[in-house]
Amino acid sequence: MKLCIIGTGYVGLVSGTCFAEVGHEVVCVDNNPEKVRQLQGGSIPIYEPGLEEMIPRHVREGRLRFTGSIAEGVAGAEVVFIAVPTPPQEDGSVDLSFIEGVAREIAACMTSYKIIVDKSTVPVKTGEKVAETIKRYNRAKVDFDVVSNPEFLREGFAVEDLMKPDRIVIGTLSPRPVAAMKELYAPFNAPIIITDIHSAELIKHAANSFLALKISYINAVSVICEATGANVVEVANGMGLDRRIGRQFLNAGLGFGGSCFPKDLSAFIKISEQLGVDFRLLREVQAVNAAQMDRFVKKIVDTLWVLKDKRLAVLGLAFKQNTDDVRMSPAIELCQRLLKEGASLRVHDPKAMSKAQAVLPPSERVTYVEDMNDVAADCDALVIATEWPQFAQLDLERVRGQLTHPILFDGRNLLDKAEMERLGFVYKSVGR
Ligand code: UDX
Question: What distance in angstroms lies between residue 261's CA and the mean position of ligand 1's atoms?
């Protein structure tokens, strides 16, 4: 099928690439000319395993192209995806101006029937507004349908999540686009849920908020574990074997971050508020998440006492493993809190060092270190802030020799507690 994807951020770029991978013909549109030039030249603006190989291959074979013009993208497309940012506003509500702008532009250039699919995460009832807008601005008065098709990809696993999705959610205002949407997704062999458009929009916010709740739940349990001498990893393993609960998203740590959970949670709370409902449970999820960071900083301060003039090594800057994304990263927040306490930092991340420099500029007190095994040189303690699996392979004897005192704070429970104690470390993790 012929597709147009508007917006080449994580969702748009990876979706476009995966649609090309299963044989669709895709035009990706972006309003940033520099980004379009970059992509046309085969260079990829984000780090996402798989894309480097896939994008140039599909461009070469003619299934994927990039342009700055919505009119050009829409002209030949049967299905037009909106995958533009929906950033949070100061009060937690969602800024829908990009969606509205794109809807108007699509309307202005539509000359034949189109299915317009919203892939961005939007508040419930946005689809209806998009349909109204398109109707108003479409002078040619051609038929169209609006569909909600939320995306559930995780950064760092985006290609895998898109190629092998748990489910495809399709919400429509009328039955007409259903057959085409099913055809579009048939190659992915996943369960397809066809529903009304409001339910589809709600599924996305409800699912992300539930996952955030799961993380806050185990983080709250970790506090009880610390107070009793229990081990939160054992508790999570025991809980997770119950198939109704599942082991995923039960890793206690520094709390969740990234461009989705914090934003979607605030948006869902705000949407509920606008509907006259106080979703207190979700406000508590936010509060537990914030407290988790406070407790970890306190743990460091309680152990090292005054941080002024102390040197700390920090492993991890990305908001999680397998990505170079530092938006709302708990690791960056931790660094900022430690700097505020007066510490100097030596930091390392396998992929996020360049993006991190914009929010954590190198300075007399912040040194970026290329090799993770050198990060601890002459430091008073080492802190693990992101769950990169390679941090579990640290050369611990070397690290112990580099530190002035063998103290390690593991904010992601990556290392083996017994082994750390055997090696003579003062080892503090979360809920163990
Ligand atoms: C999330 C959703 O998983 C995805 O379905 C949605 O489309 C976008 O939001 P993403 O933000 O890429 O994806 O990351 P995810 O892997 O879900 O992790 C989010 C945050 O939670 C990270 O900061 C991670 O470190 C933290 N996390 C995750 C935990 O602290 N514990 C866990 O057990 C799992």
Answer: 7
Tokens of 30: 């972006």
Asked if 181 and 324 sit in the same domain, the reply is no
- Is the alpha carbon torsion for 327, 119, 208, 54 positive or negative? negative
Residue 91 has which token pair?
């009060």
Per the structure, the complete domain to which residue 322 belongs is given by 291-428
Instruction: Mention every residue, 6+ apart, whose C-beta is less than 8 A from residue 246.
Output: 240
Q: Mind giving me the DSSP string for 29-68?
A: E-S-HHHHHHHHTT--SS--TTHHHHHHHHHHTTSEEEES
* 21-72 confidence digits (pLDDT tens): 999 999 999 999 999 999 998 889 998 999 999 999 999 999 999 999 999 9
Q: What is the pLDDT of residues 59-92, one digit of tens each?
A: 999 999 999 999 999 999 999 999 999 999 999 8
Residues 178 and 308 in one domain: no
Residue nearest to atom 6 of ligand 1 (CA): 152
Binding site membership of 217 for ligand 1 (Cβ less than 6 Å)? no
Same domain for 271 and 339, yes or no, is no
- CB of 154 within 6 A of ligand 1: the answer is yes
326: Cβ below 6 Å to ligand 1?
A: no
Q: Is residue 118 part of a domain?
A: yes
**What pLDDT, on the 0 to 100 scale, is given for residue 304?**
97
CATH number, domain of 179, equals 3.40.50.720
Buried b (16+ CB within 10 A) or exposed e, 308-335: eebbbbbbbbbbbbbbbbbbbbbbbbbb
Q: Is residue 199 part of a domain?
A: no
Question: Which pTM does this prediction carry?
Answer: 0.95
**Active-site annotation, residues:** 260
What is the best residue among 164, 215, 322, 412 to mutate for testing ligand 1's pocket, by most ligand atoms within 8 Å of CB?
Answer: 215
For ligand 1, is residue 25 a contact (CB within 6 Å)? no
Q: Is 388 in the pocket of ligand 1 (CB under 6 A)?
A: no
* Residue whose CA is at the smallest distance from ligand 1 atom 19: 256
Overall domain count for the chain: 3
Measured CA distances, 291 to 20, 55, 398 (Å):
43, 41, 33
Q: Within this chain, do residues 274 and 300 fall inside the same structural domain, yes or no?
A: no
Residue 130 lies in a domain: yes
Q: Is the beta carbon of 327 within 6 A of some atom in ligand 1? A: no
Q: Are 50 and 159 in contact (CB under 8 A)?
A: yes
Q: How far is the CA of 48 from the centre of ligand 1 (A)?
A: 15
Closest C-alpha residue for ligand 1 atom 27? 256
